[in-house]
Fold this protein.
Amino acid sequence: MAVTAPWLALGSFASGVGALYLLSRLRRHWGQPGAKWFVATIITMAVWCFTYGTALLVYDRTIRLALEIVCWVCLSWIGFFFVAFALGYTGRTAVLESRWFQSTALLPAAASALALTNPLHSFLWTGFAVDPTFGAAGATYALRPLGSLVVLMTTLLVGFGTLLVFDTVVSYGPLYRREAIAVGLSPLPPGFALLAWAGGIGPSPSLNFATLLFLPHIALDAYAFVRSDMFEFHPATRRAGERAAIDDIATPVAIVDVAGRLVNLNPAAEAMLDVEKRAALTDPLDDLLVGDELSLGTDRSRLGVENGERRREYKVQWTPLRDERNTHLGYTVVFQDVTDELRRERRLEVLNRFLRHNVRNETVVIQARAELLAAELDGELGEHAAAIDRAIGRLAESGEKARTLSNMGADGAVESVPLRDRVADVVEALEADYDGGVTVEISDDLTLQTRPVLLSVLVRNLVENALEHGDAPVAVTATVSGAGDEILLTVEDGGPGIPEHELAVLDRGRETDLDHGRGVGLWLVRWTATTLAVDLDFDTSDGTTVTVRLPDDRSAVPSRASAE
């Protein structure tokens, strides 16, 4: 039996060496959330193991008592360090840095002070004696109530920290589920050994096997944190992201239960409702809204909310909250402020109505009088009148294009459109106003599933731009792409080409005072193409060639384009 003693001490030393090895492997993660507290936990564990291993070899009562006191100091702090690690690792930094949690450090500090001074007052234990057992320097003493309370405090803290890590990691998905189970199981062996020793249970009450059973504890932690890099992808990131997703955004967000009662809301929602979060929790959300009524779970395109003397308009979206068992728990309610957007729409409606009626009517009057003057006057005055007539005509045409822009998207019906017939109708209407000719080379069997009105607008403005700025003739052709999934509609002229700065404006999507286009025709082309979800290619190397890539949605495969 004497041979047992060295192995019991060596087991404690092995646990200490394992703790140091774990620290060395986690060195690169020491800057991660909770890592410094994990380091403090492992260091405390290592000191405890080395100290108790040494104590098992020392029979001098004074030295043996001093070593036992050091073990009690480690016992006092290890639970606190582990809970701090669990709070930091799982992203609960607000709790970790709170005053009430920091004040809990007084408990292990007081326990350590009592342990260091126990020979003077015997508050933690009494009757210390060296008890040679199995060839080791065991120790017997009777725990006082405060001593048992210290052991219980450490056990509860470690258990609480374990639950934090276990619950958080498991609830955040299967990525580290097995590792989380390992973390949850790791404190059990030394924890049971500690409780057995404190309760006087076991083959030898004078020996504490907790340090020996730190070996499986360290092995499980190494599996979790070294093998799988749980410090590399930690729950603190997700918890911070969840907090930022609600608290840090400017959009009002409220969380309600199935009855519509507030469970959480972000600062933007507090400002919108003009309430304080603590006072508003558990109140029905609809009761806090001053203005329009909000029905539970019903999306609304517009909801008026009054705050003081101001009224804002919001678009409301409800998203059901469900757990892993698909149980309906409540809703996430997002309020999107559309007040400014609605104001802009109303201003545009007024401006559009003014342009469509007032300006158009006055333009008609001016153009009619200019035509009369041009017919009656001769020479230079007649030329001036004709120039006014042409300018007014262009202005009226621009107004019609602006009207087309304002109505874009209203014609949303998708139909089967024979491409050649549609292009031919557009070209025939344009040739009546222009001297230049247009050739159309499109096969009769090319059809599209598209919005015919918008397709006509697109073709008209491409051909019109070619007639106005290019050299006749203008060619409109259509072919099937090599892959057979697109119809390539091409409008080509021999003019000087669209200026690069106008193409740059289209690519950028906005104009400036110094960089803008000559009209709205190209904007109509771009926006119509965007609405139809088709691609445009401009080639200005030799004249202008515009290629529209139309998706080939025909039910039958067409033959390749042939000349008409």
